[in-house]
Amino acid sequence: MANEVTNILDITFPHEIRDRVEEIVNRINEEGNLHCVYDNVEMTRDWYENNIGAKWARLGDEATVDEESAYINVGSAWHEIAGFVERLNVLTDNQCTIRHQFVDEAPLFAGVRLYEKGEMIHEDVYEDLEEMLESESGKRSEGMTFETEEEKRDWMWDWMWDYVYGLIES
Length: 170
Hints:
The protein has 5 helices and 7 strands. The chain has about 170 residues and is α+β, with helices and mostly antiparallel strands.
């Protein structure tokens, strides 16, 4: 099975395009997929990789929209959904600010990208987390004692996820 990547899209927009954003979010929720906001969709792996950014993508939680923001949670295979973020920018005439956070389930990689008015203005991508986590966990666990291997593994698991999410939430 492919590693699943969690993609979180936090979108803010001017009030003038709220109806357009709500229409996009409602369509995604009703259809239950991301390709519903594209024209000339081909249900092939190549099309998905070239347009969405991953070989498959599925809606996680129900997408939401309020007065000036929207939230979309998407699981995807092996890669983040950068192509879909580009499509959202096009559909909203580049009037949104989109914060795209993504984390691989292993975690082998993670990152955050910030787009303003269609342009990426910030990017932090951590492509070799395995090596970074191994090094950092050794430093953090130095001097700690654990009663069992299970206790050590539980500490490591909790610490690892806190660390990874701390990287992309800052």
